[in-house]
Amino acid sequence: MPHSRRRAIATRIGRSLVALATVAALPSALAAPAAVADAPRRAPYLDPRLPVADRVKDLLGRMTLEEKIGQMAQAERGAVDGDRDQITKLALGSVLSGGGSTPADNTPAGWADMVDAYQSKALATRLKIPLLYGVDSVHGHNNLVGATVFPHNIAMGATRDPGLVRREEQITAIETKATGPQWVFAPCVCVTRDLRWGRAYESFGEDPRLVIQMETGLEGFEGRRKGDLATNRHVLATAKHFAGDGDTVFGSSTSGTYTIDQGVTVTDREHFAAVDLAPYVVAVKKYGVGSIMPSFSSVDWKEDGVGDPVKMSAHRELLTDVLKKKIGFDGFLISDWEAIHQIPGDYATQVRTSVNAGMDMFMEPYSTPQFVQTLLAEVRAGRVPMPRIDDAVSRILKAKFELGLFEHPYTDRANAKTIGSPEHRAVAREAVAKSQVLLKNSGNALPLRGNQRVYVAGANADDIGNQAGGWTVTWQGSSGAIIPGTTILDGIKQNSSRVTYSQDASAPTAGNDVGIVVVGEKPYAEGVGDVGNGHTLNLSDADKAAVDKVCSAIRTCVVLDVAGRPQIVTDQLAKTDAFVMSWLPGSEGAGVADVLFGRRPFTGRLPVTWPRGEAQEPINVGDRDYRPLFPYGYGLRTRVRH
């Protein structure tokens, strides 16, 4: 997904300078179209009483080719911030914040002021077509410090609670829209079939039926009724990444050091339809999702002979013939971050191929001027037909009309006071508690009693950055106190007055009734987190040592795993009395303590299969040789302690 750390800062600055130079060199017709007279004040497209289709048709008929192509371009805020007039000159359709791309004042007001400043430049264009601003709100408005940060999707899959997912995404929509962005690049409706994938935590699970069940999040984002999108409680959603990105073959990626992310899905059309495509059918037919993001990955059809994979950004069969025509998707397609650059050929070939395949808007973060100039040349040369351009722009304009941006282009800040509110955090805390999966509970070790003396060890017990994971303030996330909230240790201390914490388990253990060791991963995102790219599913040596020491010294030993995917604990499991998968809980770590101490029952169930060893991957429910450590759907239950 988009991010602002994928390139070195020096490279980014260089690209921005190139972009500025390119803008200056563009033909004057693009910068200030004069072929069409200024729009009348009450042109039909400005009349909110007219049907959206009529407004789109009227506006499209008034647009020059330059204005149309501008609508198909999306720039990163870092590329336009030095010269915001680029938005006006290029008639840009959209701007985004990649992961970690925030205003200097990373507050609700700072965000709203920034987005509104960009919007004013869009409204300075001849036809005053408002800007669509996109952001990666993948587990809350996670770029904003102080927002409610929910558990990542894999944890939400463990809740088996579609209503809770709906509530979560509506809160995310409210908090996001109150700061300016009207469009989120979420949810990921991928089906994760290999835990070695660095994006496994962005998926609700390995079974397409579970993913479909959790697609209520689309309703939370966009609303249930016509007109909801135009309110201050909903945003345009993006179902991603179409399609098969969780089902790629390990070792097939050609993106840098990645091993599986952005790789190749080697499959037949029957399997692809049943597993990888199924969530998108529901997203379109049941929820009417407004935008879809094609994947970086490729598809290689077995029945056509393996060896000729096609990048999804170039896949006309899937983007146009299947998604738009057969399934009936009437929203618009947005390319992933520089995704078309992975299509074979020179830049003109990449642009032409993707547009003709069905892509509508292009996330070209630092090369939007080049994109605009290139597509103009391709259309004028007859290599991209005008009906394809008109189709793409009509879909984009449709979303803008449905969002009410022509009537209310600037940020409605009324809900800013609810960002990170106790009410919103209470929902996140409930999500954390319901996502906890109890995998072992010998002798009813859990729930704990408040009068027990508790020894807590492990770095992940008191690190809110680790428990939030990637896509938190920055693209990759980071360890430390990066957001407000409660750590797991904070939650334990809320339930017991007799707590000893030793991060490395070096403090004396004598005199304690219960030991709690919090193991797990450090933050990562996308292919950076792929196994084989500096990562492994195994516990760290420090985590193993802490489990060994605490579990051998204290009578009752509980281990919590704070990670984006199951880890290999086969050898450690026998040493524990209770073992809990805590996932990546986000800002409300106290929700973990709620189930540990019996304030809430354990009800979570595994959304993925837990392997015995890393070599067992990929392993999924329904496989012929299915002998996991814990099967898909497994989870013990407890009762509330009265």
Automatic annotation (TrEMBL):
Gene3D superfamilies: Glycoside hydrolase family 3 C-terminal domain, Glycoside hydrolase, family 3, N-terminal domain. It comes from the Bacteria. Residues 1-31 form the signal peptide. One of its GO terms (biological process) is glucan catabolic process. Its EC number is 3.2.1.21. It is an enzyme of class 3 (hydrolase). It catalyses: Hydrolysis of terminal, non-reducing beta-D-glucosyl residues with release of beta-D-glucose. PANTHER family: LYSOSOMAL BETA GLUCOSIDASE, PERIPLASMIC BETA-GLUCOSIDASE-RELATED. This is beta-glucosidase.
